[in-house]
Amino acid sequence: MNLNKLDRISYRLFGKWVESRSGDYMELQRKLIHARIGIPFEVYVSRVYLVSLVLALPSGAFVYFLFSDLMQFGVTSFLIIPLLSVFFGFMAFSMMMAYPQALANKRGRDIDIVLPHAVALMHALSRGSSDIISFFRIIAGNRRIYGEISDEVNTMLVNTRILNQDITSSLRTSASNTPSESYKNFLESLSTIMTSGGNLVAFFLTKSEQYRLKAINANKAFVESLAVLSEIYVTGLAVGPLFIIVLLVVLGLIGGAKYYFLLVIIVYLLVPFGAIFFIFLLDSVVEGSASKFVRISEHRGEKAENPFIKRGMLRMQIYEFMKHPLKKLIDEPEKMLYFSAPVALLFFILNTYSFYSLEFNEFVYRADDHIIIAAAIVFIPYLIFVEAHFHRINQISVNFPEFLNRLVNLHESGLTLAASLKKLRVSNLGILNIEVTKMNTSLELNENLIEAFRDFGRRVNTVAVQRTVVLIENAVKMTGNVKDTLVIAANDALAARSLDEDRTRSIKLYVMVLYISFFVFLYVIYSLVTGFFPQVPLMQSNEITDMVGESVNLSGFDRLLYIRLFFHAAVLDGFFSGLVAGKIGEGDVRLGLKHSMVMMISAYILFMFL
C-alpha cells in the first residue's frame, strides 16, 4: 500500500502503540470497512493522533489571542492556552475518529434509498433467468443509477471472479461488510434461497414489496428528522443570533469595542459558516431525489470517425442550437455563470475603481450597493436557468409513470408495443409528448424496442428514466416478456415519484418558517434603527473613536457603523437562509437561490429607507 508522507510519519510515531491496543479499535476497523476508507486502522488512528496534536496548540493560542481583550482572563491567563489546546485537540480527535462511522451511516442510507429499485430490477430479470451473477453485473455496471449498491455489488463480483469464492459465500461476505442492515438481510436471505433452491421470482417480488413499504415508513421518519433539524437551524442560527445581536448592541453602548468585536464575529463568522456547516449536515441526511439528471456518456463506435458522419453530426448540433438556443443552458445551468460572473465583475470594477484610494471603512460604505447589484447580476440569470432545469426534470418525473401505465394498458388490450406507442401520440403527456413522437419515429425507421428506449433515455437523461431504461433493456433481453417488465417499471417509477411528492408537501411548512424568522430578523433590526438608535446621541465628526483600540460610550456612538453592520447581517442571513431553505424544501442548494435573492433584495430595500 502506498502511504503519503503524513501517514508514514504518524505511523512511525504511533503505529506500534496503536497496534498493541488493537482490541480497543475493533469497532473502528468495522466502520472503516463499511465506509470504504481503504487504509488499515493502525494507520488511520496514527494519523488522527498526529493531526490532533499538530492542531491543538495553534488552535488554542489563536482562540486565546482572539478573545483575550474581551474575556480579560487576568492572573489565570497562563493556564488558558494549555486548557484551550487540550480542548481543541480533543475535539479534533473526536471528530476524526467519528468520521468513519458518519461516512458508513451515510453510505448505509444511500444503499437503503436505491435498494427497492435494485430489487425491482432483479425481480424483472428473474422472470427469464436465474443467473444471479448476471443481475449483479448489470447493477455494478450502472453506478450512476444505483450508486453505492453498485460498489457493494462490485466487491462481491471481485470475490467470485478473482478470489474464486462461490456465489453463496460471496453473498455472506458482502453481507458482513455492508453498512446497510436492509441490504445485509437481503443478501443473507438470497444466500439461503439459493442454497435451498427456493423460488427466486417469488422471493424478489416479496422483497420488492417489503422494501417499498419500508421506504414509505422511512420517508415519514426522514421528514420528522428534517423538521427537527429545521427547528434547530431556526433557533440556533437564524433567530438565536438575532437576540445575541440585540443584547450586544446594548452592552456595546456601555462596554465599548469588545462587544462590537463580538458582533463582528457573529455577523461575519457565525451566520455564514454556521449555515454552511448546516448545509453540509443536511447533505449527509437529505436523501437524493430520483428526479435528478445523470450524465450518460454517449458511446461512439468506429463509424463516428467517418468524416461524413462527423460533418453530419456537426450540422445536426448547429441545427439543434439554432432551434433551441437556450437548451444547453437549461440542461447545464452552471454554464450561465461563465457569462454572468464576468459581467458582474466588470460592473463592480467599473463602478468602484474610483473608491480604491479611500480608507477601508469608507470604501465598504460606498461599495455595499455595488456588491449587492453584482451578486444579483451573477445569481438571477443563473437561478432562472436552474429553475427551468429543475422544472423540466419535475415535469418529466410527473408524467413518466403515467406514460408507462398507459403503455401497459394499451399493450394489455392486445395491441403490439409499436401500436401502443402510436396510440400514445394523441395522449396528453405534457413534456413527454415530443419524446413519444421521437420513439415512434425510431420504430418506424426499423429500430427495435430496446434501441428506441435507449435513445429515449439518452434524450431525457434523468435517474428515474435511466433506471427504467436499464430495467426494460436487460429484462427484455433475458425474458422477452415486455408486458410484465413494463408493469414492474411503471410500479417502480410511480413509487419513487410518490415518495418525492410526499416529501415536498411535508417540507413546505419549514420553508415558510425560515421566511418568517428572516422577516422577524428584519423587523427587529428596523425597530432598533428607527426606535432605539435615535435616542442615543449621534457621534460628531470630531468624536470618531478608534473602534479597535478604545471603548465606545454613549457620547461616542457611531450610528452609521452599527447600521452598516446590521445591513451586512441581514444580507448574509438572507442569502444563507435562502440556501438552507432550498436544501430543506427541495433537496438542492441551487433551488434555494430564489429564496436567497428574495431575502437579500428585501433587506436591501429596507435599508435604502433607513
Kindly list the characteristics that best describe this protein:
single chain
Structural class: mainly alpha
Please state roughly what percent of the residues sit in beta strands, choosing from under 5%, 5-15%, 15-25%, 25-35%, 35-45% or over 45%: under 5%
How many runs of DSSP E, i.e. beta strands?
Answer: 0
Helix content: over 70%
Task: Choose one word for the global shape.
Answer: globular
Low-confidence segments, ≥5 residues, pLDDT <50? 288-304, 539-555
CA-CA gap between termini? 64 Å
Largest sheet, strands/sense/barrel: none
Can you count the helices? 22
Average pLDDT taken over every residue: 81
**Radius of gyration from CA coordinates:** 30 Å
In total, how many domains does the architecture comprise? Answer: 4
Order of helices and strands: HHHHHHHHHHHHHHHHHHHHHH
Question: Mind explaining what this structure looks like?
Answer:
The protein is mainly α. The protein folds into 4 domains: 5-107; 114-202, no CATH class; 218-289 and 331-396 and 499-608, no CATH class; 399-493, no CATH class. It has helices spanning 5-20, 26-34, 41-71, 77-126, 132-140, 143-146, 148-161, 167-177, 181-196, 200-255, 257-285, 307-323, 327-331, 337-352, 360-412, 417-423, 433-444, 449-460, 463-479, 482-532, 559-586, 593-608. Helix 10 (200-255) runs antiparallel to helix 11 (257-285) and helix 10 runs parallel beside helix 20 (482-532).
